[in-house]
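Contributing new complexes? Match this layout with glutathione.
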Amino acid sequence: MLTIYGVYRSRAARTYWMAGELGLPFVSVPVIQARRTGDPAAADVALHTQSADFLAVNPPGLIPCIDDDGFVMNESLAINLYLARKHGGPLSGQSLTEEAEMLQWTLWAATEVEPHAVKIILTLDANAAASEQGRLTIRAATKALRKAFALLDRRLAATGHVVADRFTVADLNLAEVFRYTMSQTELFDAAPNVRAWLAACQARPAFKAMMATREKEPE
Ligand SMILES: N[C@@H](CCC(=O)N[C@@H](CS)C(=O)NCC(=O)O)C(=O)O
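Output block (do not edit by hand):
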């Protein structure tokens, strides 16, 4: 059985979406970010990323983490590549080169896009977008993302997908990273293929089911 540690309002959303796409049964162990608990040291606090019980499973103290029949791993995008490889089917690479491209685009998203995208979403989550510092942070991150949007837009012009001509784990991984940038409409105005692709990814039933569960979680 697959166990997913995390909450839907975190990068664990990527793992829950992936499990849904693959139709995998799973047990969800809610582990919340320590900073969201109020007092992580309180006696009655919910299981969180710095709880001793969670650190015993996942020493980095980050969500998501999975335990797949005794195999424990973390790093959301790597977890998805693992699940795709394990369960096969159209979401996974059908050849060595497809798999290499999925890895290439996933690493690109993690290194070139996510650091900027996270700045945008964290500023918004902190309700700091209107402050001078918040505006500067978002403006710098948005500017830094222009090249990435242009690159992905050109790639999507070919087949509408990140790898090959079907929805794969590469689309899912990138869609979750690009989701953090959705407030910056100017980026999407300049990259219509990215806008259409993200909308198509988010129209998938497994994404909608994941988001519906996410909405029910406390903010
Ligand atoms: N690169 C990691 C980042 C994981 C990460 O930073 N997760 C956040 C939640 S989205 C976390 O666990 N933060 C710890 C905390 O806030 O206590 C991944 O993609 O899995």
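Reviewers usually confirm one structural detail per submission. For this one: The chain is about 55% helix and 10% strand.
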